[in-house]
Amino acid sequence: MTTTFELDRQSLLVLDKILAGTTDQDLSRPTPCEGWNLAELLRHQVSENHAFAEAVRRGEAADWDAGRLGEHAYAAYAASVDDFLAAFGEEGALQRQLKIHENGPFVAEIAAAMHLVDTVVHGWDLAKTFGVPYEPVPEAVHAALAFAGMVPTDPGERAVSGAFGALVEVPEGADELDRLIGLLGRDPGWKLS
After folding, report:
1. Whole-angstrom distance between the N-terminal and C-terminal Cα of the chain?
2. I want to staple 178 with a disulfide (CB 3.0 to 4.6 A). Which of 104, 115, 187, 188 is the partner?
């Protein structure tokens, strides 16, 4: 069985193919993340990647919103991915105890699963943003859906945390990716307008 961290690494490669040609003009593109354009989504990902890396190295991160894109958004994103992969790839990293956003402590393997969910879902966001096909790693989608099943579905709890939009119902028999997207508050049918 492939580890969660390896599935995340493979999934980050999928995102890189979508983002590699990003230009400054692309940064104002709308995304499925309500209220965020591409620049804001990338800044969020840069913040999270660096914070996850800091948390696994130090036990917790000082700031989960410190990411900056600077003059080259893709370069900032790629550097944050490298930082995340280096930190979680260190010998024994997945067995370390850490906190994520005040939660924990828990073993870093759980943090890797949290990051995998983010990677798979934001990969879908990015593909929709650019209007390109999304071809996630099937085993990664399956693992992300299994872990995301622990996310509260109660609208009140979601409103308090602010991390996820309201649950979006998907048709009976929907594939795992659409179920994951709907579970985390996105409409699988979202299109650029």
Report:
1. 40
2. 188
User: Is the per-residue pLDDT at 164 higher than 90?
Assistant: no
Tell me how many degrees the CA angle 73-74-80 measures, rounded to the nearest 5.
95
Q: List Cα–Cα distances, 156 to 22, 103, 112, 148, 153, in angstroms.
A: 37, 19, 27, 17, 9
| DSSP sequence for 96-153 | SEEEETTEEEEEHHHHHHHHHHHHHHHHHHHHHHHT------HHHHHHHHHHHTTS--
Residue 43 near residue 74 (C-beta atoms within 8 A): no
What are the respective helix, strand and coil percentages of the chain, to the nearest 5? 55, 5, 35
Cα distance between residue 119 and residue 114, in whole Å: 9
What is the three-class DSSP state of 30? strand
Is the peptide bond between 136 and the residue preceding it cis, with omega within 30 degrees of 0? no
- Domains in the chain: ranges and CATH: 8-183 (1.20.120.450)
In angstroms, the CA 13 to CA 21 distance is 14
pTM: 0.93
The 10 Å CB-count burial string (b at 16+, else e) for 81-103 is bebbbebbeeeebbebebebeee
Q: What is the pLDDT of residue 157?
A: 64
